[in-house]
């Protein structure tokens, strides 16, 4: 993904900037200080990964409002236009589109691959500050390229083996600190030599000291037994002393409480009832006295008027009835009204009884308890029942939620296992772990494959060479043939001379001939080897290597799952590494997913245990609901209401029952009133008919009393004035007499209630009742005190569960004597403690002497131990020499392995560093298991990063970043590289080398190079790169000058 155009609408000092750049290769942008080069670099960062949050460097929100712009990018054959902006409210806006469709911010970030904002800033977008930061190369995402993701199985084993041998060697012998097993054995050996001299005089001292130790130990044991007994006795006495005071108080309170047990049934509100009855009796007595006086006065007045009634018996009777005409009419109207009310109330009562349900009668309604106490009991029971239902509902909901979650989790686990085809999760985990181990072994198999292939090629080359043979030149063959022929002639001549001339001359000729033939044969044997044996040996080696190579390739095919073929064998190292990395990533991901499934399975098992506990609690709550329901139904039955489990329905029935009961009371009163009115009218009718019979008048014949009295009024007008007063007084007398009777009944009923109240309070007079009420309050206080004392005694009994105290012990207990005994025991314990400390000190001294004497054994034992120490020292020295040899071997192997298996990134960085430093530094390496960088000079010396100059350190970091960009590009992460004045600390020669290196690098990558140094811009200009010249102030639109 390369930049083709930079369009800044507003960012920092820039406004409406249009800056085209090369889509490939190098673009050099020059500008003086304050021209805005770094601003363009930050703008490029912001477009790729978002503008930074508000900070002092970027200004406030008002200053940054409206910042935004566009980058035109080329990603393969596709053109992208990425636009970002910060509006006035600080909200960040993003838009990215191609020629065919639009991309979201997440999709655009996915196209950037593994490069996030931090990685882009530390690798692709470099100023001098970013270039100098070594910490940016220490992050996990970058360090895996520089230092390698792991050491591999072989490297880890080499490091562990080297560390183990080094540790073992230090344990055996550390000459620097003069520690180790050998030094320990040497010290013991010297000590045994000294002990041999004093081994004879030990036994007598040992026996004497042993006897002293036994005597002191026996004395100390006796003292400890006495201390234990005294402490037990003192603890018992203290416990008895603590228990005796509450027990004594308990006995006193129980004796006092016996006097108040007979008042257990005393009314709870008796005083209030007594005061009400006293006031009621006083009022009724006053009312009865007043009514009695009025009756006596009326009787006296009636007697005075009796003599007028004797003169006109019938007239006065009729007159009396006529005088009562208004009363009769009123009684009749009142009777009609009361009868109508009674009928209406009876209908209302029947309707309410029908509303209560079937089977409700007046007798059943009278049995319902509608008192406030009943209402309080009903409310309390309903509240308890509803609380039990609420607790059960909450727990059932919590249980159902946990069960559903566990079921869903188990279903998801089963579906995931079914999708993966896993029947046993443990076996799948073992297979995944074995698969990961095989993949970790893959690198070693690749090395073995290369080694066997190289050995086969070498053997085939040698076989081909021996098959062709090492032919001698013609002149050499001719000379050897001539030597052989001459040797043959000389032998023959020697035989001939020996026979013909003399044996000495023949022998000389013969030896010369043999020497010539032997020389010819030796030279041929030297240049012509035994082809048969060499060929056989090489062919056997080739077959063995091919067999091992096939085995290694079969293992590789088994691990990778790809059959080996010619093309796979010729695959590049890069493809192999990528394939291996991908397989390890897949295996690691699969193992992580299986471990996550295993953790899910464990959570399911734990949740099942929780569900089992929750089911037990749910059973308890269900039992509480059943008990609450039973208590609720029993209370409804006790109150006379219909049994129902719905509290609202029960309260509705109770309210209807209360309303019906009130209607019943009204109907009963109305019915009694009707009965009284009927009795009164019947009495008037009977008197009227009696008078009519005496006066021989017409009977009523169905007429009403008021009609009959109206007729009599016309006939008896003359008696109106005479009898009016008498009739009124008589009616007043009767009413007053009825009221008097009612008052007397009320007084009798109130007196009866007072008697019952006094009986319930176990009193005969109100004063005695009030005294009993005071006693009842004292009884409650005594019971509360007894409860506290009982709790205190129970707590004390739990403190000493092993000590049993009977009441007889408490009765005979004397607190003063016990305290004196406790003090005496304390003083005796102090004396015994001093004696025990003295015995312990003497016993310790004796044991120390025994220990010292036991270490001094017999001379023979000491001599034997001395010989054993010599044997152990010889074996330890042999182990140390072997360990040192092994440590040196492992160090050489580690150095060889470290040299052969350096990360690819450092190999490429070494190439760039060699170019940047003009060959001064040839290689960059990192030790095993470390995150340190070591630079190798051409002379063979090594330097750490801290030992380099500032310029060389910056060149090293630049080389590493160029190598990282190459590595990321091979992983299909191609992004432009932005450099801002990174050569300011380079000298002239290395600056030119850096220019050449950047130009070579830009042939494969897009590079934007910002600089404020004109000579750098001119260097690039001389190399054919025309810079873009920025003015001092970034205003208006800039056009590229060329290129």
Mean pLDDT: 75
**DSSP helix fraction:** over 70%
Gross geometry: elongated
Beta-strand content: 5-15%
Low-confidence stretches: 566-571, 1034-1043
InterPro entries: P-loop_NTPase, YhaN_AAA
Keywords: Coiled coil, Membrane, Transmembrane, Transmembrane helix
Domain YhaN AAA: 1-216
Transmembrane segments: 474-496, 503-523
Could you explain how this protein is built, in words?
This is YhaN AAA domain-containing protein. InterPro entries: P-loop_NTPase (IPR027417), YhaN_AAA (IPR038734). Residues 213-240, 274-312, 422-449, 535-597, 709-760, 815-856 form a coiled coil. The chain crosses the membrane at residues 474-496, 503-523. Keywords: Coiled coil, Membrane, Transmembrane, Transmembrane helix. The protein contains 32 helices and 14 strands. Helix 9 (202-258) runs antiparallel to helix 27 (815-854) and helix 15 (372-420) runs antiparallel to helix 21. The chain is elongated. The chain is α/β, with parallel strands linked by helices. Among the domains are: 157-199 and 859-895, no CATH class; 203-259 and 783-853; 307-368 and 647-734, no CATH class; 372-419 and 611-639; 428-467 and 491-571. The chain is 72% helix and 7% strand. The strands form three sheets. The chain has a six-stranded antiparallel sheet.
